[in-house]
Amino acid sequence: MRTGVVVKAAGGFYYVRSETGGTCACVLRGRLRRQGRPVLVGDAVEYTATGAQSGVIETVLPRRSKLVRPPVANVDRAVLVFAVREPHPDPALIDRLLIQAGAAGVSPMLCLNKADLGTEKTAGLISIYRAAGYPVLVTSAKTGAGLDALQEILRAGVSVFAGPSGTGKSSLLNALEPGLALKTQAVSAKIGRGRHTTRHAELLPLTGGGLVVDTPGFSSLVLPPLERAELASFFPEFLADVPDCRFAGCLHAKEPGCAVKRAVKGGKISRLRYESYLKFLDEITEQEKRKYD
Q: What gap in Å lies between CA 171 and CA 31, rounded to an integer?
């Protein structure tokens, strides 16, 4: 029995990278197919070789993390790529993706690409997320700005690149690793966003160390299943003030004596982030109502 990591899944085959660095095209053992448990890119597996470059996956080992969209397992870091312009960054979508990553047990960081187009209009946004406690990196795949810092971050563990189409995820990876030659496409002037250029998730080794997953872009994301009381824990800038709320279990919405609302009013917490919180709280409340109707 050999062990390896699924680096690509396509056409019914799972391409497994062994501990020695070779890649083997595998199929699933029948009992795994019957169990109906999907095998994801990033899964650690045990497999039996049936040829020099072929094999059968026998066991999927326990996962330490799992993303739903993009469907990737055992990710250490989510690099959320947005553009400073073309398309303009959507704070509500940034906040959704931050929650999605956090709920999956993956450490998120924000990468604002296309810095060559000018960062003046996004300087405030950068400050907001840094103040909230998130790592923020400003890059340009065109000029190379910020790429050394990004490469250093990616050097350890498995990172997933995610975010809207047209923000330059594939361009960044091509700049970091020119041999990948990933397909890229310009943002459509008509629809104001990019078209998908990546058709499947694939785990890619970097020469400088680390593994990355290039994934299809997306423009919307449903919140993961959460209780209302859990939501504030995904807004790290709230945590210092939560203990000072008058009521235990405060939802930081309509309750009197809320320390989080005081922090927003005093400028300690970004109003933009707080408005995202209230919007998500309403969504979760509606989900709970539908569940019990």
A: 40
Q: What is the pTM of this model?
A: 0.82
Contacts of 47 (CB under 8 A, 6+ apart): 1, 2, 3, 4, 16, 24, 26, 55, 56, 57, 58
Give, as one character, the DSSP assignment of residue 63. Answer: P
User: For strand 72-73 and strand 66-67, is the pairing parallel, antiparallel, or unpaired?
Assistant: antiparallel
Question: Residues 14-73: pLDDT tens digits?
Answer: 999 988 878 999 999 999 888 888 899 999 999 999 999 999 999 999 999 988 777 889
Distance CA(66)–CA(210), nearest Å, equals 18
42 Cα distance to chain centroid = 14
**Coil, helix or strand for 156?**
coil
Domains and CATH numbers, the chain: 2-60 (2.40.50.140), 66-214 (3.40.50.300), 228-292 (1.10.40.50)
| CA dist., res. 212 & res. 77, Å (int) | 9
Residue among 81, 211, 73 at smallest CA distance from 155: 211
Model confidence at 197: pLDDT above 50: no
